[in-house]
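Q: For a teaching handout, I want to show students what a protein-ligand complex looks like in C-alpha coordinate form. Below are the inputs, and the small molecule is S-adenosylmethionine. Please produce the holo structure.
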Amino acid sequence: MTRLVPVQVTAELEAYLESLIPEREPVLARLEQELEADNVPAIGVQVGNLLRLLLRMVGAGSALELGTAAGYSGIWLLRGLDQGRLVTLETDPERAERARRNFAEAGFEKQAEVREEDALAYLERPGESFDCVFNDLLNSFPSEAVVERCFELSLTRLRPGGLLIADNALRRGEVVRPTGRQARNVAHYNRLVAGSPQLDSVVIPMRDGVSLALLRK
Ligand SMILES: C[S@@+](CC[C@H](N)C(=O)[O-])C[C@H]1O[C@@H](n2cnc3c(N)ncnc32)[C@H](O)[C@@H]1O
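A: Here is the structure, written as C-alpha coordinates, with S-adenosylmethionine included.
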Protein backbone atom coordinates (compact mmCIF):
# COMPACT_ATOMS: atom_id res chain seq x y z
CA MET A 1 0.00 0.00 0.00
CA THR A 2 1.36 3.44 -0.92
CA ARG A 3 1.58 5.67 2.14
CA LEU A 4 0.10 9.04 1.36
CA VAL A 5 1.67 11.92 3.29
CA PRO A 6 -1.19 13.68 5.12
CA VAL A 7 -2.02 17.11 3.73
CA GLN A 8 -0.75 19.97 5.91
CA VAL A 9 -3.71 22.23 6.56
CA THR A 10 -2.26 25.68 5.86
CA ALA A 11 -4.16 28.92 6.56
CA GLU A 12 -4.91 29.12 2.82
CA LEU A 13 -6.33 25.59 2.75
CA GLU A 14 -8.33 26.32 5.89
CA ALA A 15 -9.86 29.37 4.20
CA TYR A 16 -10.64 27.22 1.14
CA LEU A 17 -12.41 24.59 3.30
CA GLU A 18 -14.40 27.28 5.07
CA SER A 19 -15.43 28.78 1.72
CA LEU A 20 -17.17 25.47 0.93
CA ILE A 21 -19.42 25.69 4.01
CA PRO A 22 -22.90 26.96 3.18
CA GLU A 23 -24.04 30.43 4.15
CA ARG A 24 -24.89 30.70 7.86
CA GLU A 25 -27.11 32.86 10.03
CA PRO A 26 -25.85 36.36 10.87
CA VAL A 27 -25.66 35.39 14.56
CA LEU A 28 -22.99 32.76 13.82
CA ALA A 29 -20.96 35.15 11.68
CA ARG A 30 -21.20 37.79 14.43
CA LEU A 31 -20.11 35.30 17.10
CA GLU A 32 -17.12 34.20 15.03
CA GLN A 33 -15.83 37.80 15.14
CA GLU A 34 -16.93 38.58 18.67
CA LEU A 35 -15.73 35.45 20.48
CA GLU A 36 -12.26 35.74 19.04
CA ALA A 37 -12.04 39.35 20.23
CA ASP A 38 -13.40 38.39 23.68
CA ASN A 39 -11.19 35.30 23.95
CA VAL A 40 -14.19 33.02 24.54
CA PRO A 41 -13.56 29.44 23.37
CA ALA A 42 -15.66 28.04 20.50
CA ILE A 43 -15.41 25.09 18.14
CA GLY A 44 -15.07 27.11 14.92
CA VAL A 45 -16.88 26.89 11.59
CA GLN A 46 -15.59 23.55 10.34
CA VAL A 47 -16.27 21.57 13.50
CA GLY A 48 -19.64 23.34 13.77
CA ASN A 49 -20.57 22.25 10.28
CA LEU A 50 -19.39 18.71 11.06
CA LEU A 51 -21.62 18.55 14.16
CA ARG A 52 -24.62 19.76 12.18
CA LEU A 53 -24.01 17.18 9.47
CA LEU A 54 -23.45 14.28 11.91
CA LEU A 55 -26.69 14.99 13.77
CA ARG A 56 -28.57 15.11 10.49
CA MET A 57 -26.99 11.86 9.33
CA VAL A 58 -28.27 9.95 12.36
CA GLY A 59 -31.59 11.86 12.46
CA ALA A 60 -30.88 13.07 16.00
CA GLY A 61 -33.81 14.60 17.86
CA SER A 62 -31.98 15.62 21.04
CA ALA A 63 -28.50 16.50 22.24
CA LEU A 64 -26.70 17.13 25.51
CA GLU A 65 -23.75 19.52 25.45
CA LEU A 66 -21.13 19.70 28.20
CA GLY A 67 -19.67 23.23 28.09
CA THR A 68 -21.86 25.93 26.51
CA ALA A 69 -19.66 29.05 26.58
CA ALA A 70 -21.55 31.63 24.47
CA GLY A 71 -23.68 29.10 22.60
CA TYR A 72 -21.73 29.01 19.32
CA SER A 73 -21.49 25.21 19.13
CA GLY A 74 -25.01 24.95 20.54
CA ILE A 75 -26.39 26.83 17.56
CA TRP A 76 -24.65 24.41 15.18
CA LEU A 77 -26.05 21.45 17.16
CA LEU A 78 -29.54 22.96 17.05
CA ARG A 79 -29.21 23.46 13.29
CA GLY A 80 -28.54 19.72 13.00
CA LEU A 81 -31.41 18.70 15.27
CA ASP A 82 -34.27 19.74 13.02
CA GLN A 83 -36.70 21.09 15.64
CA GLY A 84 -35.12 18.88 18.31
CA ARG A 85 -34.07 19.78 21.82
CA LEU A 86 -30.67 20.79 23.22
CA VAL A 87 -29.73 20.71 26.90
CA THR A 88 -26.45 22.51 27.47
CA LEU A 89 -24.46 22.89 30.70
CA GLU A 90 -22.32 25.85 31.75
CA THR A 91 -20.91 26.80 35.16
CA ASP A 92 -20.19 30.46 34.32
CA PRO A 93 -23.43 32.46 34.82
CA GLU A 94 -22.41 35.30 32.48
CA ARG A 95 -21.64 32.87 29.68
CA ALA A 96 -24.89 30.98 30.31
CA GLU A 97 -26.85 34.23 30.01
CA ARG A 98 -24.98 35.23 26.87
CA ALA A 99 -25.74 31.81 25.34
CA ARG A 100 -29.46 32.22 26.13
CA ARG A 101 -29.47 35.56 24.28
CA ASN A 102 -27.65 34.05 21.30
CA PHE A 103 -30.02 31.07 21.11
CA ALA A 104 -32.97 33.46 21.17
CA GLU A 105 -31.44 35.59 18.41
CA ALA A 106 -30.91 32.46 16.29
CA GLY A 107 -34.59 31.53 16.78
CA PHE A 108 -33.90 28.55 19.06
CA GLU A 109 -35.27 29.97 22.32
CA LYS A 110 -37.84 27.21 22.74
CA GLN A 111 -35.52 24.34 21.79
CA ALA A 112 -32.50 25.22 23.93
CA GLU A 113 -32.27 24.73 27.68
CA VAL A 114 -29.15 26.34 29.17
CA ARG A 115 -28.52 24.98 32.65
CA GLU A 116 -26.11 26.81 34.94
CA GLU A 117 -24.70 23.67 36.40
CA ASP A 118 -21.58 21.54 36.75
CA ALA A 119 -21.65 18.89 34.03
CA LEU A 120 -20.58 16.09 36.36
CA ALA A 121 -23.26 17.00 38.92
CA TYR A 122 -25.90 16.89 36.17
CA LEU A 123 -24.66 13.55 34.84
CA GLU A 124 -24.50 11.97 38.30
CA ARG A 125 -28.29 12.34 38.66
CA PRO A 126 -30.39 9.78 36.83
CA GLY A 127 -32.12 11.52 33.94
CA GLU A 128 -33.13 11.56 30.32
CA SER A 129 -31.19 10.02 27.43
CA PHE A 130 -30.07 11.82 24.28
CA ASP A 131 -29.22 11.01 20.66
CA CYS A 132 -25.92 12.83 21.04
CA VAL A 133 -23.62 13.85 23.88
CA PHE A 134 -21.13 16.53 22.87
CA ASN A 135 -18.31 16.89 25.38
CA ASP A 136 -16.48 20.21 25.06
CA LEU A 137 -14.79 19.94 28.44
CA LEU A 138 -11.74 17.85 27.57
CA ASN A 139 -9.50 20.87 28.29
CA SER A 140 -11.29 21.65 31.57
CA PHE A 141 -11.20 18.42 33.56
CA PRO A 142 -9.11 18.40 36.75
CA SER A 143 -7.93 14.78 36.54
CA GLU A 144 -8.03 11.52 34.59
CA ALA A 145 -10.44 10.12 37.19
CA VAL A 146 -12.95 12.89 36.40
CA VAL A 147 -12.47 12.33 32.65
CA GLU A 148 -13.27 8.67 33.18
CA ARG A 149 -16.32 9.32 35.36
CA CYS A 150 -17.67 11.79 32.80
CA PHE A 151 -17.09 9.28 29.99
CA GLU A 152 -18.89 6.47 31.87
CA LEU A 153 -21.83 8.69 32.80
CA SER A 154 -22.10 10.09 29.27
CA LEU A 155 -22.59 6.55 27.94
CA THR A 156 -25.49 6.04 30.36
CA ARG A 157 -27.18 9.16 28.86
CA LEU A 158 -26.85 8.00 25.25
CA ARG A 159 -29.52 6.12 23.37
CA PRO A 160 -28.31 3.05 21.46
CA GLY A 161 -27.18 4.30 18.04
CA GLY A 162 -26.37 7.69 19.59
CA LEU A 163 -23.21 9.73 19.05
CA LEU A 164 -20.57 10.57 21.63
CA ILE A 165 -18.51 13.48 20.33
CA ALA A 166 -15.69 15.44 21.94
CA ASP A 167 -13.65 18.42 20.74
CA ASN A 168 -9.90 18.97 21.28
CA ALA A 169 -9.13 15.25 21.00
CA LEU A 170 -5.61 15.99 19.74
CA ARG A 171 -4.82 18.73 22.30
CA ARG A 172 -2.58 20.72 19.90
CA GLY A 173 -0.82 17.46 19.01
CA GLU A 174 0.36 16.99 22.62
CA VAL A 175 -1.51 13.65 22.95
CA VAL A 176 1.41 11.92 21.22
CA ARG A 177 3.72 12.66 24.16
CA PRO A 178 1.38 13.90 26.89
CA THR A 179 3.30 15.61 29.67
CA GLY A 180 0.91 18.30 31.00
CA ARG A 181 -2.29 17.53 32.90
CA GLN A 182 -4.64 18.51 30.07
CA ALA A 183 -2.81 16.46 27.46
CA ARG A 184 -2.80 13.44 29.79
CA ASN A 185 -6.54 13.88 30.36
CA VAL A 186 -7.25 14.02 26.64
CA ALA A 187 -5.01 11.02 25.91
CA HIS A 188 -6.85 9.10 28.65
CA TYR A 189 -10.22 10.01 27.10
CA ASN A 190 -9.03 8.81 23.69
CA ARG A 191 -7.90 5.49 25.18
CA LEU A 192 -11.26 5.03 26.93
CA VAL A 193 -13.20 5.67 23.73
CA ALA A 194 -10.96 3.51 21.53
CA GLY A 195 -10.98 0.66 24.07
CA SER A 196 -14.72 0.58 24.71
CA PRO A 197 -16.47 -2.55 23.39
CA GLN A 198 -19.69 -0.51 23.29
CA LEU A 199 -18.36 2.05 20.81
CA ASP A 200 -17.22 2.30 17.21
CA SER A 201 -14.96 5.33 17.01
CA VAL A 202 -12.50 7.52 15.15
CA VAL A 203 -10.54 10.70 15.85
CA ILE A 204 -10.91 13.14 12.98
CA PRO A 205 -7.83 15.39 12.67
CA MET A 206 -9.93 18.47 11.99
CA ARG A 207 -8.77 21.65 13.75
CA ASP A 208 -7.76 20.49 17.30
CA GLY A 209 -9.17 16.97 16.69
CA VAL A 210 -12.71 15.67 16.98
CA SER A 211 -13.42 12.36 18.74
CA LEU A 212 -16.45 10.68 17.18
CA ALA A 213 -18.04 7.50 18.53
CA LEU A 214 -21.24 5.57 17.88
CA LEU A 215 -22.90 3.66 20.72
CA ARG A 216 -23.64 0.19 19.36
CA LYS A 217 -27.26 -0.96 19.30
C1 LIG B 1 -14.47 24.95 25.47
S1 LIG B 1 -15.65 25.94 26.26
C2 LIG B 1 -17.14 25.56 25.39
C3 LIG B 1 -17.21 26.14 24.01
C4 LIG B 1 -18.53 25.92 23.33
N1 LIG B 1 -18.91 24.52 23.34
C5 LIG B 1 -18.47 26.39 21.88
O1 LIG B 1 -17.78 25.74 21.08
O2 LIG B 1 -19.12 27.40 21.55
C6 LIG B 1 -15.94 25.12 27.78
C7 LIG B 1 -16.95 25.83 28.67
O3 LIG B 1 -17.27 24.95 29.73
C8 LIG B 1 -17.38 25.67 30.94
N2 LIG B 1 -17.08 24.69 32.00
C9 LIG B 1 -15.87 24.35 32.53
N3 LIG B 1 -16.01 23.34 33.42
C10 LIG B 1 -17.33 23.02 33.44
C11 LIG B 1 -18.10 22.04 34.13
N4 LIG B 1 -17.52 21.19 34.97
N5 LIG B 1 -19.43 21.99 33.91
C12 LIG B 1 -20.03 22.84 33.03
N6 LIG B 1 -19.35 23.79 32.35
C13 LIG B 1 -18.02 23.89 32.54
C14 LIG B 1 -16.40 26.82 30.81
O4 LIG B 1 -16.83 27.93 31.59
C15 LIG B 1 -16.43 27.11 29.30
O5 LIG B 1 -17.32 28.16 29.00
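A: Two things your students might notice: Residues 181-195 form the longest helix (15 residues). The mean pLDDT is 96.
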